[in-house]
Amino acid sequence: TKKSVEPGNIVGAGQLLMALVSDRLWVVANFKEVQLRRMRPGQPAAIKIDAYPQREFRGKVDSIQAGAGARFSLMPPENATGNYVKVVQRVPVKIVFDEPLPPELKIGPGMSVVPEVRVQ
C-alpha cells in the first residue's frame, strides 16, 4: 500500500492518490504450450518452494495468459539467418495459494518454485 497524498493537498482529476497492493503471494509458472491443452482456471496445483523443499503448498490455477511470453517481450526472439526453427513456447500461468503462507516463512518475489497442476 502506498499513499501519495496528504491532508490539505489539492488533487486533480485522474491523479493517483493511493495504491493498494495485496499481501497475498502467487506464482507465475511458464508452462510449455504443449502442456496447456487440458489446463483450465480452477484446477488444483501443488507448489514446492526450493527454499523449503520439505513442504508442499496447495493452490489453484487462477489464469492462463492468452499468448506466449516471447511474443510480449521487449525484444522477441527472431532467427537472423532466415532459417525456420520451431521452438516450443512458454506461456505464463498464474497460480494462487489456497491459504495465506505462514509469516515465519521468508518467501518473496523471484524465488524458485516447482508447480504441478492436476489436469482432468
Note down, in words, how this protein is organized.
- With 120 residues, this protein is an all-beta fold.
- The chain has one domain (2-117): Efflux pump adaptor protein, beta barrel domain (Elongation Factor Tu (Ef-tu), domain 3), CATH 2.40.30.
- It is built from no helices and seven strands.
- The strands form two sheets. The protein has a five-stranded antiparallel β-sheet with strand order 3-6-5-4-7, with no helix packed on it. Strands 1-2 form a two-stranded antiparallel sheet.
- Strand 4 (44-49) and strand 5 form a beta hairpin.
- The chain is extended and about 60 Å long.
- The model has no long low-confidence stretch (mean pLDDT 86).
Q: Would you state the CATH class?
A: Mainly Beta
- The secondary-structure element order is EEEEEEE
Question: For the CA atoms, what is the radius of gyration?
Answer: 19 Å
Portion in helices: under 10%
Number of helices: 0
Task: Quote the beta fraction.
Answer: 35-45%
Q: Would you report the number of β strands?
A: 7
Stretches with pLDDT under 50, minimum 5 residues: none
Structural class: mainly beta
From the spread of the alpha carbons, the general shape counts as extended
Look up the CATH topology: Elongation Factor Tu (Ef-tu), domain 3
Strand order of the largest sheet: 3-6-5-4-7
Mean pLDDT, nearest integer?
86
Termini gap: 38 Å
State the gist of this model.
This protein is mainly beta and 120 residues long. It has no helices and 7 strands. The protein has a single domain (2-117), classed as Elongation Factor Tu (Ef-tu), domain 3.
